[in-house]
Amino acid sequence: GMIWSECKEIWEEGPREYVVHLWNLLDFGMLSIFVASFTARFMAFLKATEAQQYVDQYVQDEDLSNVTLPPEVAYFTYARNKWLPSDPQIISEGLYAIAVVLSFSRIAYILPANESFGPLQISLGRTVKDIFKFMVIFIMVFLAFMIGMFNLYSYYLGAKYNPAFTTVEESFKTLFWSIFGLSEVISVVLKYDHKFIENIGYVLYGVYNVTMVVVLLNMLIAMINNSYQEIE
């Protein structure tokens, strides 16, 4: 029903007018993810049905552990911990979780009708532009330290107390969570006696935390507060 409603809206307004409104894009994205989730689950169901038909047709023994099955059929007897990362069921569950989160955003449709929540939502929407401007500087500083720390520690994979900064992915995760105080100082400590590298790591990690957490994050909060006051 919601998909039919969106199709009618696109037909009546035209595609160009439809994409101008961000709420339409949010609805379209949410419904697309739901459809993708259901499609992946249906594919998993079809594959499982084919495997069951094979068992019903060729296997007489009720205990499948005593039967040698083709790999594509035996796969459906495995526990979840042996499933492939690309299994349609796993993909379906991940997409469904995202779609459920997005679906709650539809509550925002009725918030502007309330005298308390309406101004908050309108102010939040208008401060998003300021936040995006600030994110340019934020991302530039983040990338600089992420690449720098990775270049410093990429040669020490397996020679650290934790894998922080040894890969690009680990560098991203360590620096991102350090913004919220969820990374440890041991991230820069080496098992080797290479104090020069370790000291540079301490300095860079300290400068990053001061720049991002103390300066930029508080500047962002102040900017949002200023924008909110103007809009109010």
TrEMBL record:
What would be one Pfam family of this protein? Ion_trans
Domain Ion transport, which positions?
A: 3-231
Q: Give compartment(s).
A: Membrane
Coiled-coil ranges per the record?
A: none
Bilayer topology term: Multi-pass membrane protein
| Main localization, broad class | membrane
InterPro entries membership: Ion_trans_dom, TRPC_channel
Keyword Oxidoreductase listed? The answer is no
GO CC terms in record:
cation channel complex; plasma membrane
Can you name one GO molecular function term for this protein?
inositol 1,4,5 trisphosphate binding
An example of a Gene Ontology BP annotation on this entry? Answer: regulation of cytosolic calcium ion concentration
TM helices/strands, residue ranges: 20-40, 131-153, 174-190, 202-224
Q: Which UniProt keywords apply?
A: Ion channel, Ion transport, Membrane, Transmembrane, Transmembrane helix, Transport
What is the protein's name according to its record? TRPC7 protein
Instruction: Say which species the protein is native to.
Output: Indicator maculatus (spotted honeyguide)
Q: What is the lineage of its organism?
A: Eukaryota, Metazoa, Chordata, Craniata, Vertebrata
